[in-house]
Amino acid sequence: MGLDKILAITGRPGLYELKAQTRSGIVAESLIDRKKISVGLRSNISLLSEIAIYTLTEEVPLKEVFNKIKQKENGKKTKISHKEEKIKLEEYFFEILPDYDEDKVYASDIKKVIQWYNLLLDYGITDFGDEEKSKKEAPAKAKTATKAKASAEEKTSKE
User: Fold this and answer.
1) pLDDT, tens digit, 9 for 90 and up, residues 91-106
2) Percent of the chain, pLDDT > 70?
3) CA distances from 47 to 25, 28, 52, 63, 134 (A)
4) 25-30 vs 36-40, strand pairing mode
5) Cβ-Cβ contacts under 8 Å for 36 (sequence gap 6 or more)
């Protein structure tokens, strides 16, 4: 499962998995305690796949930030807690994303990112990449490799 089914709901702690859509909202299941809740259309719901972090040059999708954390932590939970002091959180985030925009990304945002990353690992979600993109890239890489092999064979046969 990718981040396209994981939700953050304003006013509710943790993350939720989208289970079903109803006429009046959605049914979601908490990743923390597995309780199902009904959320109305008036609630502010965000898909993690749609969230991005501001940098000085662009907006970096949350999945890329998660992948950078995963790379830094070797696929394990973060060494820093989301409850650390503001300065420690900012230092950690600078290691992950050196050019993040300090004016737009608050300590509370950094806390959420760290907490969400650890929660996703607890839930068993470790692949933060775009599944469709990787499926499209795989055949393209195979074609490129085949073309490179063919041109190498062609050069060898000419010699």
Assistant:
1) 999 999 999 999 999 9
2) 81
3) 14, 12, 11, 11, 20
4) antiparallel
5) 19, 27, 28, 29, 30
